[in-house]
Amino acid sequence: MRGIVKRFPGVVANDHVDLKICRGEVLAILGENGAGKTTLMNVLYGLYLPDEGEIHIKGRKVLHRSPRDAIENGVGMVHQHFTLVDDLTVAENIVLGAEKFKVFYDLEKLAKEIDEFMKTIGLYVDPLKKAYELSAGEKQKVEILKALYRRVEVLILDEPTSVLSPIEVRELFKTIRNLKSRGISVVFISHKLDEVMEIADRIVVMRAGKVVGELAGHEATKQLLATLMIGSRAVNIEEKFGKHVRPAGKLLEVVDLWVKGDRGEDSLKAVNLVVRKGEIVGVAGVAGSGQRELAEAIYGLRPAWRGRILLEGKDITRSPTAERIKMGVSLIPEDRLRYGVAAELPVYENIYLEKVHLEGRKSLLDRIGLRVLDKKGMVDYAKKVVEKFSVKTPSVFTNAGKLSGGNIQRLIVGRELERKPLLVIAGEPTAGLDIAATNFVRKMIVEMSEAGAGVLLISSDLQEVLELSDKVVILCNGEVMGVFRPGELSMEEVGLMMSCAKRMSKEEVERAWGT
Ligand SMILES: Nc1ncnc2c1ncn2[C@@H]1O[C@H](COP(=O)(O)OP(=O)(O)OP(=O)(O)O)[C@@H](O)[C@H]1O
């Protein structure tokens, strides 16, 4: 890629970028939120036409007007948000849209063909499973297989590990090494320095739309990478967050909670849970163990068919979400693009969304159902949140969907924390955030708890859960496997519980909640 320039209203996302990708290498692209990584790869993948610059593949100048052009030229991309069709099988998803795909086909024959294809690649998912039955790791495998089926030679993975459990990350790395040995080039976008240093042959660092540094994987140190990414500003890459407050009375109590998942299965079974004022309770588990359903049930987005949810002793099991918000419950949803923002609304309206519930019915007009919004007040408030949480956006009038992934996350975290909730349900609050923003959000969460709020911290980053939480609960298959304080169990025991291979007795769990 030579001299790539891509401008959006108010920002130069890529500012004369040169980038070389060699055959059979793993190239990592690092950079702070909004540095321009995804834009550059979207240009390569034909999602955006650059304003200036050229792309050459194997010495030939190409023009990628659409992903179809890119795929034809051997470039594939797996986005952070998967694009599989839920109701189709793995085999159908892999061939869907490929040139060889026919409208009429024999599913069994197709499955057999795909079965063989997967075996030659060394990457396997049951071809007859429906996409909705797959775990995040399996979905990602299917996305990779989909690209490989189209014979791509360059595979772009945008933050591929942010949705994976530690075991799935190991598997992905095995896959990447396997692809490399077959001469396929992998572009790896990530914020996790350990992962980048482990897997990358070469690392390119971007800052404010420009490439500011390049080094070989084996030369990299965390400090070096952080300095390149952030420039002269100092950043503490291993910042620790100690908590100095003792949890007080019960804030949230979940009693014998049973909740159905999207497919009617029991995704939470007899879950008991207590969050005290000033306490951070971490929820750990392999993705898809019931974490999302737990968050949604407490926030009122998913009904409980058995059990009770109490907030400060008041039964809110059947209360609508709006009422829970008024009572001080706040949610940072894990699927931020789908549930976190209204992409077509400007930043300021997104920030104000929940405050509308909070302010109640003030005027007469309000009471007859006509709400008068104070636009200047909304804009001023949004500006304050944007500044405090360093949301990078051309202005508060820009549509939220136009922000980079990390900046959307900052917006949501800012909106939720700024209204000083009583209970914060934080789903993957630091996924996709750069080092500075991760530190900032962790610090905010600790500060909120120190100010007396209760926090339910749901995170697939086990290190994060162990570091921040007063107590940790492990979910597997929708059941509580254990409750403990960080340090009380070995990592091995934690791992066994995460895979349902070990569970604490009922009495032990009850005792742990009681303390
Ligand atoms: N479709 C778009 N319209 C307007 N602005 C955009 C669009 N896509 C990206 N931008 C802007 O371009 C800049 C670079 O965004 P990009 O998504 O490439 O960053 P990134 O390095 O991938 O960040 P992150 O780590 O947060 O995902 C940001 O300021 C973003 O707001």
TrEMBL record:
Which SUPFAM superfamilies does this entry report, sorted A to Z?
P-loop containing nucleoside triphosphate hydrolases
Q: Sorted alphabetically, which SMART domains does this protein's record hold?
A: AAA
Kindly give the membrane topology term recorded for this protein: Peripheral membrane protein
What name does UniProt use for this protein?
ABC transporter related protein
Query: Cross-referenced CDD domains, in alphabetical order?
Result: ABC_Carb_Monos_I, ABC_Carb_Monos_II
Q: GO: which molecular function terms?
A: ATP binding; ATP hydrolysis activity
Its keywords, alphabetically, are:
ATP-binding, Cell membrane, Membrane, Nucleotide-binding, Repeat, Translocase, Transport
**Which PANTHER family does the protein's record reference?**
CARBOHYDRATE TRANSPORT ATP-BINDING PROTEIN MG119-RELATED, GALACTOFURANOSE TRANSPORTER ATP-BINDING PROTEIN YTFR
GO CC annotations, alphabetized: plasma membrane
Key word Acyltransferase present in the record?
Answer: no
Specify one Pfam family.
ABC_tran
Q: What is its main location?
A: membrane
Q: Where in the cell is it found?
A: Cell membrane
ABC transporter domain location is: 1-233, 252-502
